[in-house]
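Re-run with default settings, no changes from the original entry. Doing this only to confirm the output is reproducible before filing.
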Amino acid sequence: MKKILLALILIVSVEAKPKYDWYVGIGYVGGDGEQTQDRPSGTTVVPHDVSGADIKLGVIFATNNRFEFSWSSVDAETTNSKATFDGKEADWIFTTNLNNKDSLFLPFFVAGVGSYEYSTTTVGLNGFSMQAGVGVLINLDLEVEISYKNRLIFWEEYSNINLSENMQITYVGVKYKF
C-alpha cells in the first residue's frame, strides 16, 4: 500500500508540461578562412572565402540555454578552385539572460563539435570540427540569430598531407519556436 501511495505522489508531483521548447531554423554563413597543408616538405596556407547555409533543430531549456543540431553545407572558394564541405554539428548555446525567455535581446556564447565530409572526384575526406563563438538572439515573432564563430576542421591524413581548415564566419538566421 505504501508503494502505491508513493507512486501516486510521484505521478502527481511531476509537471504535465515539460520545461523546454523546441525550434527549427535556417541560416546563411559568410566569411574568410584558410586551409593549412602540412607536408613533409613544408607547410602551405591557402586563403579562401567561405559561404554556405544550414538547417537547425534545437531545444530551449528552462534556464534559457539551448542545445542544437545543425546540418550545413559550406563552400570554400579560392581564385582557382571551389570545395564544398558537408557537415553535422552539435552546439551548446549559453545565454546571458538566464530564465528570461521574453527578453528582446539574448546575448550568448556558443561551443560545439561536429563532423564534416569533403569530397571531389579524386579525394574523399572526413574531418572533426570544433567551433566557438558569440552572438545575439533577437526575440521577435521569429527568433533572429546574428553570430560570429571560429570553426576549425581537422581532416584525416591524405597522401602524407595533414589538412586543416580555420574559418571565421558570420551567421545570420531565423528560428521558429514551437
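The helical segments are 2-13. The longest helix spans residues 2-13.
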